[in-house]
């Protein structure tokens, strides 16, 4: 639960010097000893206490944003107290299996969470000299990710979606299936020896229907006992939307670095977060940047994304899978553009594949995982992984080019080899990418890739070493 732990201060000192109430913002005059990010108690005319946070401060004036809005407050009777502390989240292992709101308060009808510790939701930066480079494979059960855009422990990898695309379904599927495995055809690669794993799922600005979907999906799976859900609905205050990812990441850091879990954090939808950031910036009359978003949006997003990683000597890790909706499917929009700068690759969902009924509609050509090579190969997935992935990319890219050519000259003008590649591209989309809700082990993903390649003559598999062709190529044409 979000709370404060006041530093020594005379909390009986109350300010009644409010000058403005503007949207979710409140301006207090003639203040003293007030700090940036300090938590504020605001007492309304009815005696209700609301929490706020200092967002701007100078010598005698400060601006406070109220977490649950300013409705019902007035300038004459509203009182303000400064607590002397930052926003904190009470954390404990009993959070696992619980559904919380964006501020960390239970909304599942269960008992209150008794905290073991109270942590600053803004977190602390990891010392760069103590960071460990991400290098261990995380199995999501989705072939287009595991086989071609591999996720590694400690990585931050966004999913670029569009309006109406099944990003939420994919997020729920990954959350229920993901686990850390390793080994070249060993028991752990077969899924029999996975390590301690947890999921922290934060949904921001979602509708009631989406809320019900996520809760039903997690409760129906066997992953609920290792998952913490933070739910911020569309009708919740915008301020809480800014707290939600920070509260989720605080819980993730606690599970990872105190209890040594491998934690996958799924943040959806970061577009709603950025819209709330723009709304608050506009109410604060800040100078807008690109498309009205605040100029500091890059550093604000970085303060979230950079909380992923591993620490040397600590077996725990925080891995982020960030989902955002590209406005108008524009990948150059500021939100995906800045996210792409900060993170280590991207998974792009395709509207064309979605129209064809392919799920998940992942377009593998513009997708990328910059840390894939670190998480695959001997002792992690399988030795043929890199070569098979390169061959699939090459043949699928050639097949896509041939489709454009067919639209101009017709399929009758293609050679037998071209037709074979064209057929491969179709089967690749329908059976490798379009796996439905099936949870595939990494060994199954690689074996299925070889099944797709089996009709191809061995001499066309130019990106695969001969030793792997002899071992896995089941059909010589």
Polypeptide structure, described:
With 477 residues, the chain is an alpha/beta fold. It is built from 13 helices and 21 strands. The strands form four sheets. Strands 9, 13, 15, 16, 17, 18, 19, 20 and 21 form a nine-stranded mixed β-sheet that branches. Strand 5 and strand 6 form a beta hairpin. It is elongated. The termini are far apart. Residues 183-193 have low confidence and may be disordered.
Report a brief summary of the structure.
The protein has 13 helices and 21 strands. The chain has helices at 143-146, 167-177, 208-220, 238-257, 270-283, 297-305, 334-342, 351-355, 372-375, 385-409, 416-433, 442-453, 466-472; strands at 2-3, 18-22, 25-29, 38-43, 49-57, 61-66, 79-86, 88-91, 99-101, 117-120, 137-139, 151-152, 156-161, 179-180, 197-206, 227-233, 262-268, 309-310, 317-325, 345-349, 362-369. Strands 9, 13, 15, 16, 17, 18, 19, 20 and 21 form a nine-stranded mixed sheet that branches. A six-stranded antiparallel sheet has the order 2-3-6-5-4-7, with no helix packed on it.
CATH class of the largest domain: Alpha Beta
Shape by Cα distribution: elongated
Number of helical stretches of at least 4 residues: 13
CATH architecture of the largest domain: 3-Layer(aba) Sandwich
Radius of gyration: 25 Å
Helix content: 25-40%
Which residues sit in consecutive blocks of at least 5 with pLDDT less than 50?
183-193
CATH-assigned fold name of the largest domain: Rossmann fold
Largest sheet: 9 strands, mixed
Count of individual domains: 3
Report the span from N to C terminus.
63 Å
